[in-house]
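Memo subject: From amino acid sequence to discrete backbone structure tokens
Action wanted: Derive the backbone structure tokens from the amino acid sequence.
How to read it: Take the token row as a discrete description of the fold.
Attached in line: The record itself begins immediately under this heading.
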Amino acid sequence: MASDTFQIISTIIQETQEQVAGFILNRATHLIQQQPELMGFLSGSRAGGLDLGATRGHANLDFSSSPDWPLWMSFSGSWSDTGTSEQTYAFGTIGTHRAVSWTLLLGGMLEFDYTKEQNGAGITSGTGWVAGPYLVGTLQTQPVFYEARLLYGQSSNTANPFGTYEDEFDTDRLLASFNMQGRMDLEHFTFIPGVGLSYVSDDQKAYTDQLGNPIPGQKVEMGEFNLSLGFEKAIGGGNRSTLLSGEVSGVWSWNDGTGQVATLRPAYDGGRARIDFGIDHELGPRSSLSASTFYDGIGAQAYGSYGINISFKSAF
């Protein structure tokens, strides 16, 4: 009888840990992927606007304020349904900076997010924030731009592992990233080489669940390094412009951690390549219609992701 009780308690602790581990791992992935691009503040490629898009089983909403505003904002949301699980992720950024010189901007940003995952009867959700400094710069003699940020924060979360009770737990988070991008204008094409490095950690604190069981702490660490080469080409003529774009990128990602996180290995872990292709057609002075497609997972044995996105953009 005592051994049966011990086995039940051990199972509850393990399944709760597994659910929380998957949650913080997926959230760390979202946090890296949703980071706003900052080099456009100097290169001129950043513009305010609203972008609505959808693919099969997935929808997204993106909003960015005008880069001319002293306080800039960016918000995005995504929803996905794979049949066995549902995910919701909302992300926002508020930032401001000042020009130290014509080649360097220094600023600070506050990011906040909301995440919800449902797998069967289990539901996990959380709200969090990270904040810290950033810089954006360009070389004086070449069209090469770079950006860096270092952000720290926390999150408050709830876990309902079996659909019968709800627990609360907290985490500490850290994010660091560096990106560099250049532009080479040739006669018919513009080539855009880039390199980036990102790191994020999410440290879940130990807690006691509603049944009195001790749920150990665990930590996820995730990193990503990428090399890319993109291109742009304007086509057609007349009053409305059309822009073709594409990119080939090589990505190497890794994750590590403690607790049940150490047993999880995402299918995208390791090295892989990705191809993107898109077309953007100007509908008017402040609006455009675009379509894009991608395949991610070239060279990966157990991972492949592809999609088509059609979106309408309205700038202001």
